[in-house]
Design a protein that fits this description.
Blueprint: H1 2-18, E1 22-33, E2 40-46, E3 49-54, E4 61-66, E5 72-77, E6 84-90, E7 93-98, E8 103-108, E9 114-119, E10 127-129, E11 134-137, E12 142-146, E13 153-158, E14 160-161, E15 164-165, E16 169-175, E17 178-183, E18 188-192, E19 199-204, E20 220-226, E21 231-236, E22 241-250
Parallel strand pairs: 1-19
Antiparallel strand pairs: 1-22, 2-3, 3-4, 4-5, 6-7, 7-8, 8-9, 10-11, 11-12, 12-13, 14-15, 16-17, 17-18, 18-19, 20-21, 21-22
């Protein structure tokens, strides 16, 4: 009987690991203005403001934005040959990826002065940090862990849902021990276990923009978490609003 029970338990555990994780909806808590001209590639909250990276060659910039009003308080224009991508703060520095030029910029966090550049292989998409390492996405199903002192790769994490690779991982945010990621070309956010790469759950953000608001917009891209106030924000490329949201009911 004991042997049969152990076999049954093993099968049950295997089935559990292969089961698809839950999908949750959302609740909009607040709405804030967002620059309709911002092709958002990176977003986070620091010292009560948004820090945002925008893309496209000749239009990319790094900016500090007042949350309540959307007013740009500080801005650095990236040289026109670069397509700005994900950003993250680490210590007194800001790191910004570029799309296909394999260059990362490092800025002084306060002044936006360019301090240095790093090279990396492949495309740059999103960035966040676990407080020790930088975490980078490149559009695949893998996340890269980087040393913030040298930008050297420390390892990779394969992201899977019930054993299936989840690619198109885009803008990233570290929230309460999970990695949240926009999935490019969708209105979904995936919540990832940073130890195993397994998907803990999904957020379906469909319908967050009204029909009128969707005119002229591009994909959802931008997740920011304010740990001091425990608030989560989401936006997208050319979106007219940033939304403060909470996780809703299971679908």
């Amino acid at each position: 009987m004991r042997r049969v029970s152990l076999v049954f338990l093993a099968v049950a555990l295997l089935a559990q690991t292969k089961a698809s994780p839950a999908v949750y909806g959302y609740q909009v808590v607040n709405r804030f203005p967002h620059d309709r001209g911002a092709f958002t590639e990176g977003l986070f909250v620091l010292d009560g403001d948004f820090y945002e990276s925008t893309g496209l060659e000749g239009k990319s910039n790094l900016r500090r934005v007042e949350i309540a009003t959307g007013r740009v308080k500080q801005q650095y224009n990236v040289p026109s040959q670069y397509f700005g991508e994900g950003i993250v703060a680490f210590g007194k520095q800001l790191f910004q990826l570029t799309y296909k030029t394999e260059v990362a910029f490092v800025y002084d966090r306060s002044t936006f002065q360019l301090l240095k550049t790093y090279k990396y292989k492949g495309e740059g998409w999103g960035m966040t940090t676990d407080g020790k390492r930088l975490i980078m996405s490149d559009g695949t199903a893998q996340l890269r862990f980087l040393d913030p002192a040298t930008f050297k790769e420390l390892g990779r994490l394969s992201v899977t849902d019930a054993g299936r690779p989840i690619d198109q991982l885009n803008e990233l945010e570290w929230i309460k021990g999970e990695i949240w990621a926009n999935i490019w070309l969708t209105n979904r956010i995936v919540r990832i276990n940073p130890q195993t790469g397994r998907v803990n759950s999904w957020l379906d953000m469909s319908g967050i923009l009204s029909v009128m608001e969707t005119a002229g917009t591009d994909v959802m891209n931008g997740i920011a978490y304010d740990a001091k106030t425990d608030r989560v924000f989401v936006t997208g490329k050319y979106w007219p609003r940033v939304f403060e949201v909470k996780v809703g009911a299971k679908k």
